[in-house]
Here is the input.
Amino acid sequence: MTAATHPLAEAFIDDFMANADWQRVAADWGWVIRRPGPLTLLVALRGLELPGVQNAFTLRLECEFCPSLPPNVRFVNPDTGEYDPNVDARHLARLTAPDCTTHEKYGFAPPYIYGPQLVCTSAGHGYYVSSHTPNEDQRWDPTKHSVGTTIQAVQRALVNPLYYQGRFGGV
Amino acid sequence: MSQHAPDRLYRLVIDGAEYTTSDVTLTPRQLKGMASLDQQRVVFLQLPQGQERRLADDEVTNLNGNEIEAFITRDPAELVDIQHYRLQVDDTVYESKAPRITAADIRVIADLNTATPLFQLSGGHSRPVSDTEDIDLTLAGVEQFSTLVPVVPGDVHVTVTYTSNARTRSFQMPLTATVQQVVDEGYNKLKEAKRDGDSLFTGRPSRTSLTALLGLTLSDLQVQGLVHTEGHTLTFQLDIDAQMGGA
Here is the structure.
């Protein structure tokens, strides 16, 4: 990350926020998107309704790697906008989709600034620092993909009954 | 997409003064900062034929076009005295300073390419307008236009979205068409190739997998409640998910 990359990263977020197609998708899903900093987004979204399980989640996207690499995406505590692995596991959705799996405590080596939570998708930065190798169709491509692609990858898993298994820390 | 070579500079004009920037996209807020203007001023993008379009403060303008983008700013108090005529294209309202414009002007204002069909909506009907047609904006109400081809009675208005980039296209299919034919036409309209691992769903937010339904017709899906009725129109939303890497 260098200072010179930030204008590109900010413009990449600007493009997503201004894109009419993504605005329509966000409205359909009911995403509530906040931008607390120039390179950070907080996105409130919902998963399937499961008996006894709250289905509201919040994602935090850190976009300083964009556009050459995707944003880091993590589930966070909606009250703090942060994720403390010792107390916030209940805010992490248990996802097992082939293209979006969540890990509560992933063994990043070397340590990763946004670890230990890993939302493992090739639309998220953590994938590329955790010994995963995408094929050409899956690899992040800033000419085709957007910040919305990252949110969408999580959203798709959250509404798929085969892959959404509730929360890590109970209800 | 907002990428540019670091050494590329873009030229733009604000209130007649020329500026250069390395940013390929700028918002009015940034433009006013660049020109040291009061943030209360309202920014307009100048368009061909003397047209202009008011920009929201967080609206992004791409400077990577063929022309040098020109902007003018006005004090909000001045705007009260300027007569603007409003028109709506799909869901967006635009303003024109000219009381009469052509459909070609509307394409410029709404940033539509020449291949996009344009229809004028009136009294529940829709009629195609040619690019040379003169349109009077002084009539009561906001003149409304649509880029959606009117649906033939009995046909289904299909909206297909490639979910990894949100690109969406619309087209019509007869109720007798199979889901497979709808999917094939969806890929064709999106200009996307089928890839191993692609998944097919009905639209958001209640997605139903279409994998086992490819041999059914849209009429069959209507019985299952997957083709909807909106007013007098049958609609069907198709999501194509390209598989990312993960696990």
